[in-house]
Specification:
The chain has helices at residues 15-27, 37-56, 71-82, 97-106, 120-130, 152-161, 181-184, 244-260, 262-277, 310-319, 332-338, 356-372; strands at residues 2-3, 65-68, 88-91, 109-112, 136-140, 165-169, 188-192, 204-208, 286-289, 300-305, 322-323, 325-327, 345-349. With 373 residues, the protein is of the alpha/beta class.
Length: 373
Amino acid sequence: MIYLDSAATSMLKPPSVKREMIEAMVNMSSPGRGSHPWAMKASSVVYDCRENIAKLFNVDKPENVVFTFNATHSLNIAINSLVTKGTKVLVSPYEHNSVMRPLRAAGAEIRVIEGELFDNFSFLANAEKMMPWADVVVCTHVSNVFGCVLPINALGNMCRSMGKKFIADASQSAGSMNVDFAASNADFMAFPGHKGLLGPQGTGVLICKNEAKPLLYGGSGTDSLLPLMPENLPDMLEAGTHNTAGIAALNEGVKYVMRQGAENIRLHERNLLNIFSQPLFKNSNLRMFYCENNAMQSSLVSIIPLKTNCEYVAEKLAEEGIAVRAGLHCSPLAHQSLGTDATGTIRFSFSPFISAAQARTASHALENILKKL
């Protein structure tokens, strides 16, 4: 199987991720829930992961790194902390349902920052015009549909200078690109553990700058006499038993990224995208959303077949042993912005464990399927 669906989840992981998950299930219990060796080992591993994430993303204090169950959980906490009914929120044209649905549920007033695909100049110019209206800005770092890289650092600087709160969604960039929390000026940054950080499903991270509000209430392992959640991070936001096995495994994924270097991973994956895409440039049977500027697009690319539907081609690729994703990718706003909501796209996304030969094989397979149409 050639796995080109890493934008959904990283099926291909370092062997140490699996080993550490098994080790945690055998020799670790609940962190903060006892002074016996199994609880203490769990506490040590969870804190080590917190420290490593703080180093990788340039976070001053490890306690500002909060563990969640996925990026959606993280984004719900961030939105719950800043948005109530009537809050005016600016969003990018590429936001995922994990942003849009919580905003609507909170009763936010929402406006979309318009801009051309792969054109950050127009995006920032329009953001600056609309910024006086807003209370909060939410922006994805990378579109999970088109792979366009948005200027979250410049947008965060704009928010800071104009006194606006900023939530950054790094779901498609954390681990596979250089992401700097301090440089982003974000109040919150959310991302999953199971994508670019190569950890297991059921793990997520929320980085908090200052204040936050709990989304869940329950046991925290500390300050049990308090009627509500503790006021200090991360305990305030980590109600209930931790996913210790998941966090231990995530720590191994984070350490792998730190050893390899996020920039080196980005260059490898972007090279694979180029190898895959170049043979398809002149193919009249498809529409491809590709940017020649490597800094403007991540390691995923979407295509639309012009003579059939996306699901059919994805099924044919699966028969050839090539895993991709077809559809709307939980991001209808992105498709509405580009006029692809009626068709969806086929998304090809790469990882550190894909080879150049596999990228070529996938490209040739796609060409052959389109020729047969």
